[in-house]
Amino acid sequence: MTTTGRPSSDNPRQDVESKIHGEEPPSQMAELQHPPDSRHEQSEMASTFRRFWCATTDDSHLTLFGFRRFRTAHLLNLRFLEEEIRKIDHDIFQAGLQLDIPYTAADRLGLKHGRRDKSALAAGALIKPKLISRLRDLLKQYDETLIAFNQIMLMETFAPADQSSPGSDLNTYETYKTRLLRVDLPPRRDSRDPLRHSLRKFLRTIRFYFLYGTARGKEEDSSFSSASELESKLKRPDQNTALIADFFTRFLVALLASAFLIVPLILLSLQASNKEHLITVSVFIVVFAFLVSLLSKASNSETMAAAAAYAAVLVVFVSNSSGTNDTS
After folding, report:
1. What pLDDT, on a 0 to 100 scale, did the predictor assign at position 238?
2. What is the value of pTM for the model shown?
């Protein structure tokens, strides 16, 4: 009698001997030790390790030190913690109002006008060690999460579109809107430079439209036989948007400062009357103070000091030119 089934291994004699001794054939033992699900997990882990290894040993700082920020997930976590603490705080507040303790003269918390919940538990039934312990744990998590999130938001960021390989889980628009963290750079200043931020946004926008047009052109080209070949053709060099924006910001600020010194000096040298000098100096001082307030996050004292220093330079030039005219 013949069987159509395949032998359990490549060595039938070994399988028969294993059955005689009450042992499982080697092929079945291997399947027991490494089930299909386990082999799939090992293959997936090997693929993940390969991807992480390439990112960890990359030459580009954007790939090497870039990590997801998960801003929405952080904010959701904070909202859930906030809601849990709010419920406990409401119950404690209502329990305190039911004590009928006389209000203070100032009543800074406004307890006199606080809304009372008739279904609230009394202090004796509510305030227990378990509630206090839970409140402490929630407040600790909430405070630590707030501080950590504040530090994360102060870190330097860049868009995945700046990378040569932004990742397959993001489309072209998502690579433009998503932000990654640069863990190798120091935190940003407390105040964000509006000019620098606008330049970085402008550079990202240009790169987005360039990549979007390139991707559409490649997709319409039928010469690519597979998606992997198309992805390889879409690779491009990294764009360090922060470095480019810093350079152009410094250059524009230096150019603007030079213009605010050279242009009024030329106009003042061509003017003869003190009235014209006064009008020119006043206009340039007002425009300079306006631009300093608009393009920087300087404090009030810093803005006043910059305007005063600029006015002093113009006044000195006016006085020198007036003395020269009088002498002549």
Report:
1. 61
2. 0.59
